[in-house]
Write a structure and sequence with these properties.
17 helices, 14% strand, binds zinc ion
Length: 350
């Protein structure tokens, strides 16, 4: 743990904002569809001829997991052409750059679009997304990769189609697969063959677990699905065996505190376990999950962490955890880790 002064109230954490923005950061758990701003949603919906009336902001309102899912599925239906996805990614990467993000791993759920718009060319869409990512890299140096997030509710067959697509898009920034959707009704064990195949073909693996189900879901994600990262992991709080399992297997939790509060993955009267996890030596990174639905940004998540009485040293550790756990190449990871150390040294120099 750190000797840095702890920040223990909101005004002090707000003072840290410029330092947080300057800190080189990664964002590893962010859904492409959840980054679309209300303004961009209105623009895309209109140009696709959707019956669009009322305030775009209202479409993003949510107060628990069910209302989030309903809002999400309504908004996602506006995305019908490769350009729509490319525009969303372009806008997210611009925002990310302004937040001090130097590496992003964006999740995209092609199975949802396969269900809503079977005529959409998913390979062309993946290539359009990649072109937007390459363009951002050329302009600002921002690195980004794509993860195909499979949807539990749609079953094993659809997930296998996502693996096929991931392999077809390997030269277009797709580095791995994820698993999202309704964790409480569609358990990890139903996707064992899918993840076995993903591992065999060398796709990296992240799983939403311990968000809408208990600690056993995290255990299954690691032991049955070979998860290298866990999204949320809230159910690991207070569970020493699970924390030990994650630590021993070098599995990082991509924590999303604002999301957890709004979806009520974390009960209202409970504190987020982030400080406890760090104290236990667990690797934890921070992400915004679906920033447009949860009215947050990555910098906001770091501020929220500061409000949990975490100081600069812990925030820098979180940033380094993210780079170390990313699915990028070793050389880049080393460079980013050094950049964090340099930044901390420069910002604490007398
Ligand atoms: Zn998520």
């Amino acid at each position: 743990m750190s000797n840095a002064p702890h920040v223990d109230d909101k005004s002090q954490s707000a003072d840290l904002r410029p330092w947080i923005i300057g800190l080189p950061k990664s964002e590893l758990h962010v859904h492409l569809e959840g980054t679309m701003s209300p303004a961009l949603y209105a623009q895309i919906a209109r140009r696709n001829g959707l019956d669009f009336s009322g305030e775009a902001d209202a479409a993003f309102l949510c107060h628990d997991f069910d209302s989030f899912l309903n809002s999400f599925l309504r908004v996602v239906r506006s995305l019908q052409k490769p350009k729509d996805f490319a525009d969303v990614v372009k806008a997210y990467l611009e925002t990310a750059t302004a937040q001090g993000v130097v590496h992003a791993e964006i999740m995209w759920s092609p199975a949802t679009q396969r269900k809503f718009f079977p005529d959409l060319d998913l390979i062309a869409t993946g290539r359009a997304i990649h072109a937007a990512m390459a363009d951002a890299r050329g302009k600002t140096g921002l690195s980004s990769l794509l993860i195909l997030d499979m949807v539990r509710n749609l079953g094993e067959l659809e997930a296998m189609l996502d693996i096929d697509l991931a392999l077809q898009l390997r030269d277009y920034g797709v580095v791995g697969v994820g698993l999202g959707g309704d964790e409480s009704r569609f358990p990890a064990r139903d996707f064992q063959r899918v993840f076995e195949r993903a591992k065999q073909v060398g796709l990296r693996r992240t799983v939403h677990a311990g968000e809408a189900a208990g600690a056993e879901s995290i255990l299954d994600a690691v032991e049955l699905l070979h998860a290298q990262r866990i999204g949320h992991g809230v159910a690991a709080r207070g569970c020493k065996e699970i924390v030990r399992l994650l630590r021993d297997n070098n599995v990082t939790i991509d924590a999303c505190p604002t999301s957890n509060a709004i979806t009520q993955a974390l009960p209202k009267n409970e504190k987020h376990p982030l400080p406890d996890w760090l104290a236990a030596g667990l690797s934890v990174s921070l992400s915004s999950d679906d920033p447009s639905f949860f009215a947050t940004t990555l910098a906001d998540e770091y501020e929220r962490a500061a409000e949990m009485a975490l100081g600069r040293s812990e925030l820098a550790t979180i940033a380094k955890n993210g780079f170390a756990a990313s699915f990028a190449g070793g050389e880049e990871k080393r460079r980013w880790l050094e950049a964090v150390d340099d930044y901390v040294a420069r910002s604490t120099a007398p």
